[in-house]
Amino acid sequence: MARMATTELPVVVIGAGPVGLAAAAHLLERGLEPLVLEAGDQVGAAIRQWGHVRLFSPWEYDVDAAALRLLEAQGWESPDRDALPTGAELVESYLAPLAATPELAGRIRTGTRVLAVTREGVDKTRTVGRAGRPYVVRAVADGQVTDIPARAVLDASGTWGRSNPLGAAGLPAIGEDRVSAWLAGPLPDVLGADRERFAGKHTLVVGMGHSAANTLLALVQVREEESGTEITWAIRGRSPARLYGGGDADGLPARGLLGSTLRAAVSGGAIRLIREFTIGSLTAPADGDGRVAVAGTGRDGAAVSLQVDAVVAATGFRPDLEMLREVRLDLDPAVEAPARLAPLIDPNSHSCGTVPPHGAALLAHPDENFFVVGTKSYGRAPTFLLATGYEQVRSIAAALAGDTAAAERVELALPATGVCSTALGDREATESAEGAGQGSGRVGFATGSQHGWSGEEPAAGSCCGTAPRPVAASSPSCDG
Ligand SMILES: Cc1cc2nc3c(=O)[nH]c(=O)nc-3n(C[C@H](O)[C@H](O)[C@H](O)COP(=O)(O)OP(=O)(O)OC[C@H]3O[C@@H](n4cnc5c(N)ncnc54)[C@H](O)[C@@H]3O)c2cc1C
Fold it and tell me: Does this chain's domain 6-161+317-408 share its CATH topology with 176-245+255-315?
């Protein structure tokens, strides 16, 4: 059988999250044929798992421009551009209708998990004759494995399924693999579907990011309503100051409110905080029923042991690189993001407010026409924003279509106040108050309060760490 010309092959997009679907929309506008492969039964499968969480960026920044053009042609009306959707609303009001447009509907295969990507007929070591070869995307659907040829591949598969382990130094704690029944996932629906798991029980929350804060504040509410509910919060750092924000002095009122609420819950005894905690081992009860034993060390190496009913590992995510083993990638050794992008997003020095928009040039790899996009492109950095991902795929679609000028242009203008921190006064305060209290859609916990992990280090000569300051979303600088 004659081989198809590479240019007649589809551009395979891995993952039907917001960035994968936006990629498909941009590719279509450029006259390229997308084929979106989605592991879940429905589009937005990862976001559906945190559907109860309210985003911190408003609709204005959650909808891609090319996707909007497809939707508007179907009479779609945008939700209030200033409103903050929950994950579930993002899927139901945007991703599901987008996937149902006549242009995209036939180009998305759900229930199709990509196992591996390679170049046709050559393994990774072969250089001679490599350039210009099609890609082969191996996928499984209904138990059947197929190889799908592609002219280019965009990996938009996210990182949701790959939580960082609980153990220190990047490795699972001893026994972690045997206590999965006690691990409640990174963002359980504490006030909704998962409530029974936490009410009247002892929960350990591990982590120092927004997910940890969301879960802790929800648990505090359950504790007020259900006696016997215990909350322990373990952080690896010395101080939770970064997450507390600046309280009344904070430039962003809602961030201050959320931080103050968390701080009050700790100082009032609702949450027991363990600093500098390193988890060494997790041991299931002998009869498989009851509490899991968590052993480790705290401040000054003091032994800490806990008995808990559930553990929430809000420890961040890492990319699945195994499926890309046969692709020649240029990844930063620490961040696991494309090497040229990594310095701009390195969590040692950047918050989401300091990452500049970027496109095809920064995301390129030694194997041409292969890109990791969306939240997976950030590797282990936690600061990805949808608006940045939409700009990535706009630029890549232009590059694949040969429009270098458009690929190089930066078309995204983030507001000076930051998409990540929604410095929107009353609206944010309202949302935050709702999140800290009752109602569906939990806290949209503001980010950008400090520049990455550097914000966790106490300032020289200070007992309490540096004071948080608002940051600019458009500035690549990290001295904010
Ligand atoms: C709780 C939370 C709140 C957030 N809030 C905001 C916010 O307010 N503003 C903002 O800009 N960003 C926010 N983000 C960050 C980011 O925008 C989201 O994570 C967003 O979902 C990333 O989109 P994505 O398309 O890159 O990946 P995902 O939404 O994770 O989509 C990836 C898709 O790929 C599929 N997939 C995975 N592996 C495979 C495979 N092997 N084969 C085929 N398909 C596969 C998954 O099922 C999934 O559907 C938030 C993230 C989280 C977790």
Answer: yes
Cα–Cα distance for residue pair 138/321, rounded to 1 Å: 15
Task: Read off the pLDDT of residues 440-468 as tens digits, 9 standing for 90 and up.
Answer: 333 333 343 333 444 444 433 332 233 22
* CA 351 – CA 346 distance, rounded (Å): 9
Angle between helices 386-400 and 18-29 (to 10 degrees): 30
Pick the residue whose CA is nearest to atom 33 on ligand 1: 15
Q: What spacing in Å lies between the alpha carbon of 437 and ligand 1's midpoint?
A: 26
* 3-state secondary structure (DSSP) of residue 14: strand
Taking the CA of residue 323 as reference, the ligand 1 atom at the shortest distance is 41
Give the span between the Cα atoms of 101 and 166, in whole angstroms. 41
Please, which residues have CB within 8 angstroms of residue 288's CB and are 6 or more apart in sequence? none
**Which residue CA neighbors atom 38 of ligand 1 most closely?**
157
pTM score, whole prediction: 0.87
pLDDT in tens, 323-366: 999 999 999 999 999 999 999 988 777 666 667 788 999 999 99
CATH numeric code, 6-161+317-408:
3.50.50.60
What number of CA atoms fall less than 13 Å from residue 175's CA on the CB side? 16
Residue 253 CA to residue 250 CA, distance in Å, equals 6
Token pair for 177:
């693999």
Task: Return the CATH number of the domain spanning residue range 176-245+255-315.
Answer: 3.50.50.60
Q: pLDDT tens, 29-65?
A: 999 999 999 999 999 999 999 999 988 889 999 999 9
Atom number of ligand 1 nearest to Cα 45: 49
Q: Whose CA is nearest to atom 29 of ligand 1?
A: 17
* Ligand 1 mutation target, pool 13, 36, 41, 47, most atoms within 8 A of CB: 47
Spacing, Cα 17 to ligand 1 middle (Å): 6
Atom of ligand 1 nearest to the CA of 210: 1
CA distance 254 to 426: 8
Q: Spell out the domain ranges in the chain.
A: 6-161+317-408, 176-245+255-315
